[in-house]
Every structure is written in structure tokens, then in C-alpha cells.
Amino acid sequence: MDRNSLKCKIGPSILNSDLSQLYAESQRLLDNGADYLHLDVMDGHFVPNLTFGHPVVKCLRKKIPHAFFETHMMVQNPEQWIEPMADAGVSQYTFHIEPVLKDVLPLCRKVREAGMKVGLALKPGTGIEAVRQFINHADMILIMTVEPGFGGQKFMNDMMPKVQWLRHNYPLLDIEVDGGVGLNTITACAEAGANMIVAGTAIIGACDQKSVIASLRETVERSIHKCNV
Q1: What is the Cα–Cα distance from 43 to 194, expressed in whole angstroms?
Q2: Which of 49, 61, 71, 228 has the fewest CB atoms below 10 angstroms from its CB?
Q3: Which residue range(s) make up the domain with 97?
């Protein structure tokens, strides 16, 4: 990645797709302009829901060898899944700091040693100060704009100051937003400084995925251009 400029990246959350057609749906998203796939992994403990784990990711990787896979680990014990996810071909391992605050740095190191990029995720109730000391050890910070664990929630605009603070202090950091992001909320995300956009329902449920992805991208790139000028 060019460290001298920010890039807009759109990563649909495939959880909203028809999971019985996971490969076809994922490939269609990539064909329609997605930059990466955002894979939501939930363990039934950290969040109430249960989704899929490394065996599913591994099967998907065999079918889609070259795409960038980000796993969003909504799990109580992120250490447990580092090796299996690396083996499954995950590109970036994004884990929540809340259950592992005393172990964030060693976990970052383990993720990197396993050959994956490091993402650190914050729930809406977690302030930015909780992650400040770890930012230089991560490739990306994920600011959740809904409570993790369920799709289709309303976007929380009051999370935007976290994004603004990160962008102001770390001009070249990859900052991801996830939750309720769509055509109606993308402007707030882009203007706050997010450059990695996770959208589930807004893209998956669209009649024309390609035009929705293009529209999200255009809004973000307009804001990035202002930052880079």
C-alpha cells in the first residue's frame, strides 16, 4: 500500500448475503467493484449471535484465491483463532480490544507473526483513549457505528468524533466504519475521515450493487481528495 496517500476501500459484509450461496455471492460482490470482503465472525459469547468460523473461510479462500479477506472477530478469546484463521488464508485479522485490554500488544504481535495484517475494533461504548497506545501497532482501526452482533441496526452518528480524532492525529491510518453504513450515512463517514467502508444491507440488498459501491466510493474519494491536497 502507498503510505503517502489514503485509498478508499469498500468491503461488503457478506453476512447479509445468502449464506447457502456464499461463494457466488462473494464473487459477485468482487465483480461489482468491492475492494475486499468483510467476514463477520461471532462466537455467541462476546456477542449473542453465532455465524461461521475458519472452516467456512478456508473453503471460500479456495474458491477465491486472490481477494483481500478481513475477518472481524467478534469473539471473547481472539487468540484462540489466530492460527486457524491464518491457515484459512485470512489477509487481515481484526479483533475487539474490549475483552483483551491487557493483551492487545502480544496479540498484535501474534497476528503479524502469523502473516496477517492487524485490525483493532472498538464497540460504540469504548472511548478512543482505550486504543490510543496501540494505534502504532495496528494497520487499521475499526470504529463500530452500531452495537456489534446484529445486522440492520441504525447508524450511530455520535461515533463520528472518534473517526475525526483518528484522522486528525493519524492522517495516513486506515480507518474503517461498520454498521448501518449506506447511501444515507456515507457522507458523515467520509467527512469524518473514514476510508475503509463496510456496508452490508446497503450493498447486498441493492438491485444494482455496482452503482451502490461506485456511489459510496465517489463520496469517500471526494473527502480523501480534500485530505490529500
Answers
A1: 27
A2: 228
A3: 9-228
Q: Is 40 among the catalytic positions?
A: yes
95 is in an annotated binding site: no
Using CB atoms within 10 Å of the CB of residue 129, give its burial: 0 to 12 exposed, 13 to 18 middle, 19+ buried.
exposed
Indicate the residue type of 62.
K
Taking the whole predicted model, whether its pTM rises above 0.70 is answered as yes
Calculate ∠ Cα 76-25-77, nearest 5°.
5
Q: How many other C-beta atoms can be found within 10 angstroms of the C-beta atom of residue 185?
A: 20
- Does 201 count as an annotated binding residue? yes
Residue tagged active-site, from 40, 43, 139, 174: 40
Which residues, 6 or more positions from 84, have their beta carbon under 8 angstroms from its beta carbon? 53, 54
Low-confidence spans in the chain with pLDDT less than 70 = 1-4, 151-152, 227-229
Q: Is 3 contained in some domain?
A: no
Query: Residue 4: inside a domain, yes or no?
Result: no
Overall domain count for the chain: 1
Would you say residue 50 lies in a domain?
yes
Cα Rg of the chain, angstroms: 16
